[in-house]
Amino acid sequence: MAQKEIKVALIGNPNTGKTSVFNQLTGLHQQVGNYPGITVEKKIGVCKLSEDVKATIIDLPGTYSLNASSIDENVVIELLMNRNDENFPDVVVVVTEVENLKRNLLLFTQIKDLELPTLLVVNMSDRMQLKGIELDIPFLESELKTSIALVSSRKNIGIEKIKNLILNYQNLSTEPCLNASSIDVEYFDKLRKAFPNQLLYKLWLVITQDVNFLNLERKELKSSFTKSHADLKRLQQKETIKRYQFINDTLKIGQKIDRSKASDFRAKLDRVLTHKIFGYVIFFVILFGIFQSIFEWSKYPMDFIDSSFANLASYAKNSLPAGEFTNLISEGIIPGIGGILIFIPQIAFLFLFISVLEESGYMSRVVFLMDKIMRRFGLSGKSVVPLISGTACAIPAIMSARNIENWKERLITILVTPFITCSARLPVYAILIALIIPDEKLFGFMSLQGLTLMILYLLGFGVAIFSAYILNKILNIKSKSYFVVEMPSYKIPMFKNVAINVLEKTRAFVFGAGKIILALSIVLWFLGSHGLGKNFKNAEQIVKQQLDTKNVVYSQKYLDDQVSAYKLENSFIGIIGKSIEPVIKPLGYDWKIGIAVVSSFAAREVFVGTLATIYSVGSHSDEEDTIKNRMAAEVHADGSKIFNFPTGISLLLFYAFAMQCVSTLAIVKKETNSWKWPIIQLVFMSGFAYLTALLAYQFLK
């Protein structure tokens, strides 16, 4: 028997714990995607309410009101007003939090005017005693014309009540809290008479917002009831005042706050964490600790994964019948999968730390702190959010720049964000740092490798800021947006939220970048294992002649390795690599590195997987060498190491600055609605990366 489905829209201001409530309701039964036609992320989860009823919950972007000023907020309005939308909700759940109930209720009263079944969730109830807050729930339910669930998502209190209220959503009142026509009686009376079959507040939103949901011509509505921008703003302000008057009157009785019982720990901590000197020192120390830990903690699982796949490849080659299929598995697929999984520990730890900083409330303090620096370089304070988000991935970071209203400031943010070191660069940095930087400690506790990683992150951030400064001068930005950031309460991070976030992001890496890496590994294996011409077909005969001419005494194992290397050099991939070698040789790269650099344009992290595949194809040795060991053993014809210090630094700088991600280019094109800016971005970043890598290698060699 098919289960009955209730569609639920989860809505609330930022920092109300909406995502925590979503996670408690849905657990791991979540899907993340984009709304059709736009780059706004949507999360949908499933929650079982009873044996035969389930709830499909859509977690909408955080919004302060239905007076939209960004694409994110527009998504909320259009969903709530478009009954033809497949996700149109049967019931709306508005999440508020106990300390900022007055501000949160503005959105709630607007949604109630849409006459949808609406449930009010008051989150963080566990902080009421700490803050000296008491709520008269029966009175608030009566005045707000709804049912209220008092919950603590942190302690899993009240979640069952939410489920029960959703299950019985037909019992929720659809009556508005206050009459929208009180904003301007004469104007709204005319509006009602002209469209008697339409909901008054929906008409008002169509007039004031860039949305259309009614079965009538927008021109008809606009021409009859149009007002100047100033008049509309005046009416919106009047609406906001009316709503806050109602909220204030309601909370005077329904909410009692005894400040003598409250703790002012937050204010004291804020003074330290946002201090003009100590704030930056603390942030630097936290960053330093994070990058030290990423290397120290992930070292052991990475070594285990690396050696396990080396053993597996060797086992497959020795156990399976000799032939093309065995070569594909042992030299293409297994090294390819190993090139994906080896970096899961570092990526998981990176997202773990980012999630903890966000969950604790500290990330908002960082945004506030860094705003003071950003403005000196012509960036909007709101640009800090995309730049910090860029440490995870440039794609959602660029998408988050939609919250910047000023087009030029938004454009600058989009153009410089790819300089921020993202998690895709982490695999490249990790393997190169491990090859060229000694695994030693300064002063007994400071890892040189961790310190190098931190310097690369700071370098990316510094170049992004400098580029923004130059672009600000070139584009001549005159107008500036005001920056508003909310300081949420400090919280002990919820394990469930952190775990789900880490799992989602790591899974996105494995199944997103992983598919590209594995596919390229198979293609590269084919190109490296096949070729045309006499040199490839007669490789063993030619190598034997060369060795005999030099009177070299050799074993069969040595001969096999020499033949494999010769065949690789004359394979399809060898021909491609040799053709681009003159361009990359001044950077210290050989043709194998060149192939890895070109193939990694699909995704930066492909670099390591590509080299793993090339070196697996190029070596028939039975030794169970790991990726790192094979790279370390690579030598030039004169016996010198290929991955020496100058080449390693050159590669690190190249990947720090190059636009090595086709997905980022695609998202820039979508966000700017033009190929002009991504092409400029690609040319400038690649040129800058090449020049920097060239200077570094020539200076250090």
Entry summary:
This protein has 701 residues and is α/β, with parallel strands linked by helices.
Account of the 3D structure:
This protein has 701 residues and is α/β, with parallel strands linked by helices. Among the domains are: 168 residues, 3-Layer(aba) Sandwich (Rossmann fold); 198 residues, no CATH class. The strands form 3 sheets. A 7-stranded mixed β-sheet has the order 2-3-4-1-5-6-8, sandwiched between helices. Strands 7-9 form a two-stranded antiparallel sheet. Helix 3 links the parallel strand 5 and strand 6. Helix 12 crosses helix 20 and helix 23 crosses helix 24. The longest helix is centred in the middle third of the chain and has 42 residues.
> Using DSSP, what is the number of strands?
11
Quote the distance from N terminus to C terminus: 72 Å
Q: Major β-sheet, in short?
A: 7 strands, mixed
Shape: elongated
List key phrases describing it.
single chain, 701 residues, alpha/beta, Rossmann fold, seven-stranded mixed sheet, two-stranded antiparallel ribbon, 31 helices, 11 strands, 60% helix
Itemize the secondary structure elements and their pairings:
Elements: E1 4-12, H1 18-26, E2 30-34, E3 41-48, E4 53-59, H2 71-81, E5 91-97, H3 101-112, E6 118-123, H4 128-131, E7 133-135, H5 137-144, E8 148-150, H6 159-167, H7 185-194, H8 200-208, H9 218-225, H10 229-254, E9 255-257, H11 265-273, H12 278-319, H13 324-341, H14 344-360, H15 362-374, H16 384-389, H17 394-399, H18 407-416, H19 425-436, E10 441-442, E11 446-447, H20 448-475, H21 495-529, H22 534-537, H23 539-549, H24 556-569, H25 572-584, H26 591-599, H27 606-617, H28 627-633, H29 645-657, H30 662-672, H31 676-700
Parallel strand pairs: 1-4, 1-5, 5-6, 6-8
Antiparallel strand pairs: 2-3, 3-4, 7-9, 10-11
Helix pairs in contact: 3-10, 5-10, 12-13, 12-14, 12-20, 13-21, 13-27, 14-21, 18-20, 19-29, 20-29, 21-27, 23-24, 25-26, 26-27, 29-31, 30-31
